[in-house]
Design brief:
mainly alpha
Length: about 200
């Protein structure tokens, strides 16, 4: 019986070994299925394909780098143009202010010659872009001021003329006025008869 048991163990071991071998064989087959072997000609063709693809990608990458460099350079040029435009605008503003100051000085001189003292508000009103336009504006302003001043003067001067008392009832002679002893009364009489003392 022992022999049967030993045989049974050997059979069981063989079965286990066979099972293990079958599993190993299945794994090797799976590995071999995933692994492909090529002939030397096929291998050379594949390598040539890969090198051509690599060369194309490398060339494409270099072209992209060159394009990026050009874009960076163009951006630098655009940036330089923008800065130049900003400087140009600042220059134009400064020149405009300088022209305004020069025109203001000239307008101020012309106004002073006409007897008008000008402040910034008046200068802002009469100063124009060109010398001719400023001169015309100053002339128009001076004419306007003179016309208004004359109009105001006429209004103030027009009115009733002062009355001169010519009544003979209160008429006194110069000697009568001088004989008045009270100084205040004498002054009043002189004012009423001023024509006698002229």
């Amino acid at each position: 019986m022992m022999e049967n048991q030993d045989n049974q163990e050997i059979i069981d071991q063989g079965t286990e070994t066979t099972k293990e071998n079958k599993e190993q064989n299945k794994e090797q087959v799976k590995e071999e299925k995933g692994k492909v072997t090529f002939t030397p000609e096929q291998q050379a063709a594949i390598e040539e394909m890969f090198s051509a693809r690599f060369a194309r990608e490398k060339k494409k990458s270099e072209a992209e780098k060159e394009e990026a460099a050009k874009l960076a350079e163009m951006n630098a040029q655009q940036k330089a143009e923008y800065e130049r435009d900003q400087l140009q605008k600042q220059l134009e503003e400064l020149l405009k202010k300088d022209r305004f100051n020069e025109m203001s000085k000239e307008a101020n001189k012309m106004l002073k010659e006409s007897g008008i003292v000008a402040d910034d508000q008046v200068l802002g009103f009469v100063v124009k872009d060109t010398a001719e336009a400023t001169q015309e504006s100053v002339k128009a302003f001076v004419d306007l001021v003179n016309a208004k001043a004359e109009e105001i003067t006429k209004q103030k001067l027009s009115g009733t003329a002062p009355r001169v008392q010519t009544s003979t009832s209160n008429a006194m002679t110069k000697s009568e006025i001088m004989q008045i002893k009270d100084a205040a009364k004498r002054q009043k009489a002189m004012a009423e008869n001023i024509h006698l003392f002229q």
